[in-house]
């Protein structure tokens, strides 16, 4: 009966995707879900991975924690089983983990505070601005992914940002579980080199892709790209250059897509590397939302570079992607933790995810 319901209700919603992730990059159709380098809610990661796999995502990026990676892969496995029951052609997306070479990277932090210090008459603006609903009194912070919006609005200023490094010791034992890794860097080339010296020899012989997430370094951005590429010479994996336009802001409003696209355009036009040709691919992040792909298409910046000129190979979606699906996941009954157990919630979540993925896949 359950299989019949899946087939009847979801087959029309599933994109028939058999193109593997590496070919999606080459065609300018790559979609990555960012669960969050600091987001460690295994149940939510599982459900997000399940929904976006059904929607056609090429990659699920999650925290470098064994339980979180296992949860993402359980979600992917369940999605593929549902697709098989529906008779849909759906290939397996990559699983990616993130590592950083600088503890100041905003993607690797969590909010922390002692709720007992909060004044009784505090209006608690932190609760209202938190996109993850991670702050709920009298508890402290659970499910934070590090956007930092709560810190400046706290009236007594008692919320701190706790930053950390994902060390090679954290990451190396997980490489046999994933297909890709992402290095977040802020421009310290020596720190990048030192990190890669520890993880590169294994990562670049076993993984399908290495992603480098970087901020706008001003006029020196092309030089940094060349230096990072020099460090990464050799190996067999693809290189994904993730332009982090406006970090962790895509859920704020459509305007954040402007910064994201502008930075990607700058990198593409720099000529720093042979983007789109062979192993080097530009993929947007930081401020991406529903307005990103239409803008890229209107500017002629998305697609296969074989058609002439360097073009973006795809986009990664974090805060916005989580928000549109989490709005549905929050409707699960208290005794239900798996989204596929409530067919109405799964359908709504899948429709929301598909609306974000489809513009990349149906160009």
TrEMBL record:
Domain 4Fe-4S ferredoxin-type: 133-164
Pfam families: LdpA_C (PF12617), LdpA_Fe-S-bd (PF25160)
Highest taxon in the source lineage: Eukaryota
UniProt entry tagged with the keyword Iron-sulfur: yes
Recorded GO MF terms: 4 iron, 4 sulfur cluster binding; metal ion binding
Signal is among the record's keywords: no
Keywords attached to this entry: 4Fe-4S, Iron, Iron-sulfur, Metal-binding
InterPro entries reported for this sequence: 4Fe4S_Fe-S-bd (IPR017896), 4Fe4S_Fe_S_CS (IPR017900), Fe-S-bd_prot_LdpA_C (IPR021039), LdpA_Fe-S-bd (IPR057431), PSI_iron-sulfur_center (IPR050157)
Residues spanning the membrane: none
Protein name: 4Fe-4S ferredoxin iron-sulfur binding domain protein
């Amino acid at each position: 009966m359950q299989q019949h319901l899946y087939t009847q209700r979801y087959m029309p919603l599933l994109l028939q995707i058999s193109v593997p992730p590496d070919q999606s990059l080459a065609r300018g159709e790559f979609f990555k879900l960012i669960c969050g380098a600091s987001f460690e809610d295994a149940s939510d990661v599982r459900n997000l991975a399940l929904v976006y796999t059904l929607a056609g995502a090429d990659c699920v990026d999650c925290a470098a924690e064994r339980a979180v990676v296992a949860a993402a892969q359980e979600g992917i496995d369940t999605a593929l089983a549902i697709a098989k029951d529906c008779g849909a052609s759906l290939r397996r997306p990559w699983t990616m983990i993130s590592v950083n070479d600088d503890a100041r990277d905003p993607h690797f932090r969590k909010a922390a505070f002692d709720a007992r210090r909060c004044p009784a008459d505090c209006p608690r603006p932190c609760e209202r601005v938190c996109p993850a609903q991670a702050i709920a009194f009298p508890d402290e912070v659970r499910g934070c992914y590090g956007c930092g919006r709560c810190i400046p609005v706290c009236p007594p200023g008692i919320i701190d940002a706790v930053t950390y490094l994902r060390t090679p010791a954290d990451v190396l034992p997980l490489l046999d579980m994933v297909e890709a890794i992402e290095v977040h860097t802020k421009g310290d080339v020596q720190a990048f080199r030192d990190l890669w010296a520890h993880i590169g020899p294994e990562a670049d012989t076993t993984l399908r892709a290495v992603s480098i997430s970087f901020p706008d370094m001003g006029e020196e951005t092309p030089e940094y790209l060349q230096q990072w590429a020099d460090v990464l010479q050799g190996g067999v994996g693809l290189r994904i250059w993730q332009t982090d336009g406006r970090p962790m802001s895509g859920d704020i409003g459509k305007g954040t897509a402007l910064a994201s696209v502008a930075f990607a355009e700058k990198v593409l036009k720099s000529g720093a590397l042979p983007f789109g040709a062979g192993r080097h691919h530009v993929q947007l992040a930081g401020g991406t939302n529903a307005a990103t792909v239409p803008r890229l298409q209107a500017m002629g910046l998305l697609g296969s570079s074989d058609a002439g000129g360097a073009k973006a190979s795809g986009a990664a979606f974090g805060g916005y992607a989580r928000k549109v699906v989490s709005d549905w996941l929050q409707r699960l009954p208290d005794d239900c933790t798996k989204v596929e157990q409530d067919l109405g919630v799964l359908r709504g979540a899948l429709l929301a995810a598909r609306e974000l993925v489809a513009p990349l896949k149906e160009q």
